[in-house]
Amino acid sequence: MRLVSPAEQWRLPFVEMARECEAAGERRYVLAIRDFAAYLHRVEAARRGVGLPAGHVPSTELWLEHDGSILGCVRIRVVLTPELEVEGGHLGYDVRPLRRRRGHGASLLRLALIEARAMGIARVCITCDDDNIASIKVIERNAGVLARCAANERGTFVRQYWIE
What we know:
By secondary structure, the chain is an alpha+beta fold. It has one domain (about 1-120): 3-Layer(aba) Sandwich (Aminopeptidase). Helices cover about 35% and strands about 25% of the residues. The chain has six helices and seven strands, in the order βαααββαβαβαββ. The strands form two sheets. Strands 1-2-3-4 form a four-stranded antiparallel sheet, with helices on both faces. A three-stranded antiparallel sheet has the order 5-7-6. The longest helix has 15 residues, at about 105-120. The chain is globular.
């Protein structure tokens, strides 16, 4: 298992993952299904911090690859806004639906922490919904220490973890 940079060579396995996510009701990767080149352009623009929506910060997206399949995705943000400290953190990640509950989330986060440290992030903030038991387990398996649990602007509770 390794993290790879988004690239044309991963089109088929990434679109396969994107379709699986869409079938599960997750819409994050719809653009990749419709126009993979546009999706790659958006990922690169986000990395460079170009054309970001208000309140967004630059982020680096990497994909978890194993045996030619894309199993998940992580977005690494070097800079935190006060809002991202509450919800979002330095790292946002997801595993494709049919590969969940197999330890891939823990592997993805472990590899992402190595990348984050290489980017100069010594203390990593990760957040998750208070009712997301799978993500809580992934974060805590990777030495996440719960700092607080607070309501977000939608009124749901979000856990904030830090990993040294």
